[in-house]
Amino acid sequence: MALYLISGIGGFIGSSLARELLSRGEQVRGFDNFSTGKRENLTEILDLIDFREADLGDLAAMHAACGGVDFVLHQAAIPSVPKSVLDPLGSNRANVDGTVNLLVAARDAKVKRVVYAASSSAYGDTPTLPKIETMKPDPISPYAVAKLASEHYLISFYRCYQLETVALRYFNIFGPRQDPTSPYSGVLAKFITVMLRGEQPTIFGDGEQSRDFTYIDNAVEANLLACKAPASKAAGQVFNVATGHRCTLNETFKLLQPLTSYTGQPKYGPERGGDIKHSLADISKAEAALGYKPKVDFQEGLRRTVEWYRSR
Ligand code: UD2
Hints:
CATH superfamily of the domain at 3-174 and 214-244 and 283-295: NAD(P)-binding Rossmann-like Domain
Shape: globular
Bound molecules: uridine-diphosphate-N-acetylgalactosamine
Order of helices and strands: EHEEHEHHEHEEHEEEHHEEHEHH
Radius of gyration: 18 Å
Helix content: 40-55%
């Protein structure tokens, strides 16, 4: 049994990681400042975990949180392209300064490995698809720059201090518990909840933008594999975490219609600043080095997510 520290444990990815680790009999500690995470995501597991309310900006709290920890799963962030365009300083504080604080604490506590929630936004809008880790990154939004800067900090901490680090470039993770209520929420959480209410979703732009939407269980599995993969294959490395397929927003809307019983049409609004047009991953590096294989495809993921929101 190992002790895992999850930053951002109140978030949808952090709380999903916690549930899976508990079901595997592992020990879980976690912290959140509830800036985007939610207490209700932890309700049934609160008694089973060592939870602390803390902010990544508090180095003393990070040192305390890392004591005795085997693996850190660093999910805490302000995860939004448009929010970072409005507030680049806030994005940098949470997404870069916060990461460095946690890395310093993890290094000092001699944790075995830090696995980081990096982002596909690092690739930017370069025309070549699929995106492969050897491509030169070309981030557009402050959020994408911050996520990429943190990746480089992870690699630096491996090179300079031999702290084993792994960066997982998430491609549009979705699933149960993703918050649909903020203007910055992920598109699928918004579309599903709006359509279930019989309301019209808004597509920003022409709807022909595409994403490699990745169901949460795949991201959870990738994190747990990244903790256990041999250091020779994983440490100091960056991996795409995705499905290797993409879907446009217009196609996604059509898939959601029968699942949500929504019979109307979407509205179209202006394109969003800082957005990229197409996103699709090559996942062969994660397959070869981590043994990663997407377990749940997009359509099945949509079905499970719609069912979850419907049951609320
Ligand atoms: C980026 C990253 C993703 C993750 C995420 C964190 C890319 C390709 N992906 O997601 O991996 O790091 O940031 O937030 O960079 N949209 C609508 N209507 C809405 C909401 C969104 O049309 O009501 C559009 C939006 O303009 C975009 C697409 O849906 O074209 C996806 O937006 P999103 O905010 O769900 O995720 P994205 O791609 O910015």
